[in-house]
Request: fold
Amino acid sequence: MARDYDENAWFNRLKVGVGQIKTSTGDFPGNVEKVLNAIKKAEELGCNLVVFPEMCLAGCPAHDLLQRPDFVQGQISAMRDVASRVGRIIVLLGFVSRKKEDRIEYLHNAAALCFDGKVLRVIEKSSIGEHSGLEERHYMTKGELAPPVRINRVAVGVLVGDDVLRPGTCEQLAEQGAHVIVAPIASPFRIGATDSRISRIAERADEASVNLLVVNRVGGQDELVFDGASFAVDDYGERIWQAPQFEEGLFVVEVSAGNRPAALPDDLEQVRGALVTSIRDYVHDCGLSKAIVGLSGGIDSALVAALAKDALGPENVLGLLMPSGITSKESTDYAESLASNLSIKTESVPIQPILDTYIGSLSGHFVGKEPDVTEQNLHARIRGDILMAFSNKLGHLVLCTGNRSEGSTGYATLYGDMAGGFCPLADVPKTLVYSLAGHINSRTGQEVIPKTIIDREPTAELRPNQTDAESLGPYKQLDPILEAHLDRGLGIREIVDSGLPEEATRDALRRFYCSQHKRHQAAPGPRIVSARTSSEVRLPINSHFDAWFKFSE
Amino acid sequence: MARDYDENAWFNRLKVGVGQIKTSTGDFPGNVEKVLNAIKKAEELGCNLVVFPEMCLAGCPAHDLLQRPDFVQGQISAMRDVASRVGRIIVLLGFVSRKKEDRIEYLHNAAALCFDGKVLRVIEKSSIGEHSGLEERHYMTKGELAPPVRINRVAVGVLVGDDVLRPGTCEQLAEQGAHVIVAPIASPFRIGATDSRISRIAERADEASVNLLVVNRVGGQDELVFDGASFAVDDYGERIWQAPQFEEGLFVVEVSAGNRPAALPDDLEQVRGALVTSIRDYVHDCGLSKAIVGLSGGIDSALVAALAKDALGPENVLGLLMPSGITSKESTDYAESLASNLSIKTESVPIQPILDTYIGSLSGHFVGKEPDVTEQNLHARIRGDILMAFSNKLGHLVLCTGNRSEGSTGYATLYGDMAGGFCPLADVPKTLVYSLAGHINSRTGQEVIPKTIIDREPTAELRPNQTDAESLGPYKQLDPILEAHLDRGLGIREIVDSGLPEEATRDALRRFYCSQHKRHQAAPGPRIVSARTSSEVRLPINSHFDAWFKFSE
Reply:
């Protein structure tokens, strides 16, 4: 249904700049500069309003830093600094405000409306959100819904953060005459979240018959990736404007009759965008520019290297080959051809001499003991040490190559392949790793990730002829079991009743509950499929799963 | 003030057994057996009531397992199992109850009153506690305060968990005629917590003029250590009975006029008890019996070895010496004499040949680069690998030897000295490490920890003539800075105004905020001084401290 927009539509009277920017937690001088640059650009483009996301100046999530008076004061000073430099353009800027009542200080998630060197008004969030990763309730107090303000003859309602999703808020502002509601938010990505956010907010607009402009944060911070994808819907809830996902910039809201914004990319491309963003921002927020990846010739390290190349550029990614005596020629060949496809540099440090020295040093202590997982883990730990040595010597960040299926079953070596600063695939199930590899090839129309790598049987190659499937069963079976338990909360009985094999289910869950000690020491990675970030999942390390499960049957 | 107790005092009519026991999270069969054994013992001793702690059957903290219906059902089955075997003795047993209202299930922190094969009554906690480590609010719903029950002509009020601390609860039960209030709790240790718990509860008893018996959980679970120290106070708030701290057992409440229970041990002995308990329970809950400690000849590893010996017995502790070319003869001598004092076995794996092989393998890649922290970290990581190899081969748990001062400043090597399953001193500041070492010597009247170790200058010995003080300043200065910031929330300005030097303060805080990535991957350790466990502290990994601090000045 194409609608004609009359000349009085809000976007014809207000030229709005959307500051879909990535700010860094605590980097107030840097954040101020970024905001001021975006304001300048908006002015140059003739905007009369420019909107920035929720908690724009503090960075997000700031977590316990919000309990530090100096941190809170710093971002208030940053807001005042921005306001003092604002000219004849109205700026709406997310920040954390502070109010004293009865000698107690309360923080509010808020937005400042600035104009001509002054803060005209501070608008508070009127609820405490529950959304994952931010944990507002620990830090914030809820404020009052503010009535609309008039900007260039348009009545603009402001809803901070997920106030826009709270039933009744849009109606209330619409009743107070708002022509359009502007919502600065900071809503993180996970698969499906962007689409569901747009459709839920569109529904609110439709219910309240009000126009809505949503300005979302973009960029990675630790385990969260904000996807941007700021958008506008009309009072029927139809999308009339859309900013790109995972792209930083000052975008201008431009609506033309009959010209609908394009659909968002498909899930795989969205996930690729999230992973690339998270790698780039994590590396840069560490003050670094380069990353190093151990290339095994397997699919996980191939995908991480390809994503790192997209994030940092091929000149900033180093692939490290660390063959042992049992590394097959194929593994080395595949790794080399991947690196060549990606145009990234490689170096090779054979680990056998180091392994032999360890085994020689330990043999006198382990007399009469058969080789076992000890020696396998040593392979992995030597590689971890070498990666970290390169990291220390060259200042590259080590990207770990573990995926969610391995992490959930503890099929990984602590201080070995788990060593590193950031783990891009930490929340990507192995079956999704395969899909992403295929997607990367098909979107470029090239065999970026060699087909031989995609087709080979998964192996940790820590002993001859090892395969992942011997230990874990096929991933096509493991991933649905993990998904049923971890994401949908099903118990063993329900999983088996849904058609998955009982023995594999018990084994997967046993592996999950017995490997919490490994996840406790894992590197952070971006949240992609899980409802909660890894820091929000709280499990006892020793939980005697076998005992409790048997008892409850 | 000694009081005379009349013959009708509650403890003359009720012979109460206190089941101050350690249960394991999720080990329902094991927990049931432990409870039944304690009940049997209480019966043999002629008790007519036996009381067990809060969440006795689930184990505590159970965290997100409480969101699993099978887990919750398991411990309800366990409760019913216990109840069905109870004879002519009244049993009060902490568990998690489940109630359905409008098709939604709610959990309550509760206690079951069992007698003669039946559950007579379930008493719910009437509030949601905020106390650190348990996070009730995520899982539980508050119930109703229950009126007293009559047992052997005594009106017994029951308050579950920290209901006993909530203003008004004791008064309310007293008004309803309670002669005594029985409070099953699960209250974890940290320095000063035991004394403050007793005095706060005693105050409630005094205010409400009611007798109180508090039954606390004992034992370690992950980062929490419950200290037991169950106790009774009279209606003036005077302590009339006291169970030991950190000791598991079935204790009988026996009160005699004029015979006051002894004071609790001093802080150092309490901390020693907490650390020993946490090591023992962590190792045992992992299904292991032995531990391994890397002995450097320094005070941290000496203290960890001494505590491990107290926890597990000397036959279950292996000390591993891993000298390099720069390890001084003193370090080896001191480590050997410590081991001999403790009667623990040692083995020695010199790391120089392994280090040389690494350096040989890497030299071609690092041409023209000077030796730096890379080589220092390699020393530490080789030691980590060797400890883990022993752990894998022999099934010993690796105890890390890092302390809180190091952890807070990132003065530790990831995957190096940070490698291990449990870190007993993770929350023990270095200055307290010294006090504990001195305490261990003075309580035994022997030089268990050689004076030479206590007196030597602290060094990581990762390069020649290195000292901790070069990097961190003296610990006597560092620890008060960390304590001011981390425990009292003071900012740089306030710390400096309190008399500590500005440069050292800035440096310590900068080190703290720049090392969150290390703590993110650290092994768990028992909470000793901090208000929150490490999982409860949430800091962004990249937080640009220098930027935000400068901006807020």
About this structure: Chain A has a mean pLDDT of 94. Chain A has two domains: 10-264, 273-469. Chain A touches chain B through 89 residues (CB under 8 Å).
